[in-house]
Write a structure and sequence with these properties.
7 helices, two-stranded antiparallel sheet, Nucleotidyltransferase, about 25% strand, NTP_transferase_dom, Nucleotide-diphossugar_trans, alpha/beta, eleven-stranded mixed beta sheet
């Protein structure tokens, strides 16, 4: 069987979730969290290893709530995304920084434990079964082309918005052959009377096409991508002002730049399933109802693991 790893980014502080750790909020009938369903789907699709990217201060709670359970189902590793996990030359440059450096840093943390093609996901997003099947087939069928290869699971914007506030999505452009040609990380996208709008910093709203294809940080990558991340992260830290406390090294931006430079090809795979996730505390009830409906429809057993 071909090998592929699932990398779950779970180090987010979850500030919009009312100060709690949103990735660990129960949504299933037996205390399951969204990650349980993601891992169940990934194993079913063929993935044979799971890597959790967490913060060191979450480790005890994380293992009690999900890690110890998953270790009995599949090979499991942990890596730690920390604020000071940066090249030594920059450790004193950002004295007032309080949070890690974004999804690019999160994936880079995995370089010593991932040696096969891998799929990156957010801990607090439910992507659906077909997404994992499509990604596994792609990642285990790669042929050497001389260029870095990747895939992205594409979702329809209107299916990924929250009823409870603005979200960040990677707005994508895709050519007729299903290849990604551009991506822009876009903040503060909201629902507004059936439309999708971007709330600008000045408070004004700009309408965007609700049927736009977006990235939900579900990326299929290969180990040679770690070298790109490592070089890029150092350049990012060098260019970032010490006064910029919110700058993040983000996968959509990194991949967008590589596309413009012609260094990567990204196949966009479409998911047939409905996405849902927990961005705000108020989202949890809706997610619990969605999980219950999936169980009722027979997609999942009442209890995932015996």
């Amino acid at each position: 069987m071909s090998k592929a790893t699932l990398v779950i980014m779970a180090a987010g502080i979850g500030s919009r979730f009312g100060g709690g750790v949103k990735q660990l909020a129960p949504v299933g009938p037996n205390g399951e969290i969204i990650m349980d369903y993601s891992i169940y789907d990934a194993i079913e699709a063929g993935f044979d290893k799971v890597v959790f990217v967490i913060r060191k201060d979450l480790e005890k709670d994380f293992k009690e709530i999900i890690g110890n359970r998953i270790e009995k189902q599949v090979e499991t590793s942990y890596v730690y995304q920390e604020l000071d996990d940066i090249p030594a030359a920059y450790k004193e440059k950002f004295p007032e920084r309080t949070k890690p450096w974004g999804t690019g840093q999160a994936v880079l943390c995995c370089k010593d434990v991932v040696d096969s093609p891998f799929l990156v996901i957010n801990a607090d997003d439910y992507y659906g079964k077909s997404a994992y099947r499509e990604a596994y087939i792609y990642l285990t069928s790669l042929k050497d082309t001389g260029k870095i290869q990747a895939c992205m699971i594409g979702f329809i914007l209107e299916n990924t918005l929250s009823d409870n506030g603005g979200v960040t999505r990677g707005l994508c452009t895709v050519d007729e052959g299903g290849m990604l040609t551009g991506i822009v990380e876009t903040h503060n996208i909201e629902k507004d009377r059936g439309l999708a709008v971007i709330r600008e910093d000045d408070g004004k709203k700009r309408t965007i096409h609700a049927g736009s294809q977006v990235s939900m940080n579900m990326w299929g990558l290969t180990p040679d991508f770690f070298g790109i991340l490592e070089t890029g992260f150092e350049a990012f830290l060098k260019e970032t002002s010490s006064e910029d406390l919110k700058a993040e090294y983000l996968l959509p931006t990194i991949i967008g730049d590589l596309l413009q430079e012609g260094k990567i090809s990204v196949k966009v795979l479409k998911s047939e399933d409905q996405w849902f996730g927990v961005t705000y505390k108020e989202d949890r009830e809706s997610v619990m109802n969605s999980v219950r409906a999936l169980i009722t429809d027979g997609l999942y057993p009442e209890k995932l693991y015996s």
